[in-house]
Amino acid sequence: MIPEQFNSIRPLNAQEVPEAIEALLNHPAMEAVFNHLSLKKKEIEDISALALTCKNVLEFKQKVATIFIDYISKKTTFSLSLSGRSRFGEDIPCTYISNHRDIILDSAFLNLLLYQISYKMPQVAIGDNLLIEVWIEQLVRLCGCFIVRRNLEGRSVLTEAKTLSEYMHYNILHGESQWIAQREGRAKDSNDLTQISVLKMLAMGGEGSIVERLAGLNIVPLSVSYEYDPCDYLKAREMQYKRDNANYKKTAQEDALNMQTGLFGYKGRVHFTIAGKLNDILDQVPETLPKQQQYEIVAELVNREIFKNYRLYPSNYIALDIMHDNNRYSTHYSAEEKQLFIDYILGQVAKIELEEGYTKDIPFLYACMIKMYATPAMNKEKTIGSFV
User: Fold this and answer.
1) 201, 337: one domain
2) What GO biological process terms does the UniProt entry carry, in alphabetical order (predicted)?
């Protein structure tokens, strides 16, 4: 039993699981999910029967969630792979901290990949802004997610941050691995920079110095690479909205569309790289420095591990060359691949529809999408040097 102080954010306890599964299977939204996956009636019946046998979150993740995520990976990716296990070594409780491309699948794919090699399936930090309906919150808590409370004010910001941090330290002490993004929300331009506020939250729990508190979480930087991001045109649209309207705020409906598009859109090749243990390089953080500078150094260490472990695809090299208006990395792609990528980007730009009052800026949207694919290559290049 997880302590009561974490009741507002924790995954479901075992005794809550059977009722949650039954309610979920009877919810109209699940029919839409099954339809999206094109499951046959017999498949739905078999999965439902299997779900009803689950007695806790781990069983549900192993028996049911992995089936769905594996199905999605086979339907929407060319390949899904993992490397870097040798850097990680033995399977110990850890805190994966990664760049963030897809709202749901970054952590879901990671769970599947680790399950396939018999490693611990991590709990997942998810923002409450995405829990737009009660059934979604029940589903994510059933899948081992814990809730990050956002849009808070005053003292409640620190109170909730401390509770979240203490819960994450509690997880590690009790043998649970976990995943959290390096920043709040996805980097729309793919410039994956670790937020200092995330590190400060992580260090609110535990004991000792900043370095000792972070070390207690066994942080493992994780690099996530998608060949194609099905939400790229939605991200570009959001970038124009924000450019044209300083008060723009994404709606719950837009979050839902991003989740649906990310789940069921084509992604090409998807790769996860375990970058190694942050604890092995935390000695690079002088504890005599002011706290802010310590956090800045840790953020840079995480960034560097993520950047240098990206897996790059022709789309990344092509975009980087287009952005710089040269052919520096043309050995990494063919003329045919370049034309196919340009056609893809133009097709995605064509999908963008803006609300009344906005004028579609095609050159800006095109440039935004090129930058999304170029930035991982640019950051890796800065970290390791030229690819030539």
Assistant:
1) no
2) D-galacturonate catabolic process; D-glucuronate catabolic process
